Sequence to fold (441 residues):
Amino acid sequence: MKPEVILHSFGYLTQAAATTVAVSFAGIVFGFMIGAAVCAARVSRHVWLKRLGAAYVSVFRGIPLLVQLLFIYYFLAKYGLDVPAIVAAVGGLALSSAAFQAEILRGALNAVPRGQGEAATALGFAGLDIWRRILMPQALRISVPPLINEFILLLKASSLVSVVGIAELTRVSMNIASQTYRPFEAYVGGGLFYLAINLCLAELGGVAERRLAAGSGR
Amino acid sequence: MNPDVLWRYAPSLISGFGVTILCWGLGGALGLLIGFAITLMNRVRIPPLRWVLRAFIEVFRGTPFLMQLFLLYAGGPSFGLRLSATTAGVVGLGLYSSAYFAEIFRASFASVPAGQIEAATSVGMAPFDTLMRVTLPGALIAAVPSIVNMLIVLSKETVVLSIITVPELMYQVQTMAAETFTAFDAIFAMAVFYWLLVETVSRLGARLEARMTAFLAHEERAA
Fold:
């Protein structure tokens, strides 16, 4: 056991950790946009939109992320699209996360009491205003803690984008392992970074949960 | 997709499927066992032991599964722990899922109403009998939906084992793709296959859950 290995490669690991956070963050943001659209399709009155949304969730939740990533990577290559690996990586994370985020948002919408929408209708709010001013603000507030939880899961899942060659935490740990012949130290080092980031996120989630609970007046 | 190719690779694909199911089954069983043991040990209130178990759960839930696999498979030999890829895969799946199963069991134990345990004590049941006849049955049934859910998540994680060269389905498909230049078709077929697997398991899980909790509906109706 040589802990020096971790100390020597601390700089590389820090850089790689920043890449991991950036890739995951991009994945969660794009995933939120797609997820919001999928959620909107799922709660719409249109039967076919509903089915389309449900099919999206079923497919992207049911197929392992690694398969999705390789599929996107090879799919783009097959049609001669020479996109950088980072696009495949972020795209894969976003498409997969969108399915989970759509379900989080749908759950949050269901958790807004029915009376809220009915009261707004009774007061003469227009359809779009009910969404914009009554339902969405409350649903978003409810969905913050589970969304942070989804971010933690996505951050761990982002280790799989190492297979398409992104120099994130897992890939860099592999490189350090092969350069120093010290795989144990290299992976412990990488793992500690993941752990540190996730503990911070979990703490953030706890704070968000408490603040939002206080704000709801319950 | 060329049917000839598929036919030629059928034996390796079938054996890959076998390895996938084997790793999933053994890994899940190991995870359930360790997870349950962790929960039971946590109920014995020894502070240092609880800190160790807490750290174990945090570490295995806070780091990516791929990282844990690398650590076990590539880092193990530093300590004289030389595992074959498949053994490392099964042990890795077991350790990883045990942290989640431990949390599931903890929550399900907590969900047994205190009144039931008090009632058992007040009618004179010994602590061991209370555990075996009141707490455990209630807790295990409450845990079924979450366990099924975790097993589904685990079935998707088996794909990651291909990265450490466990000869499971994904690994065989990638070998076939590399040898026949049919990457796109092969990965597409994989996607369909896993989707069907996960859909089937979730449907079966829902049915199992309905069956195991059917008596609850009866009780509610009787009440």
Chain A touches chain B through 43 residues (CB under 8 Å).
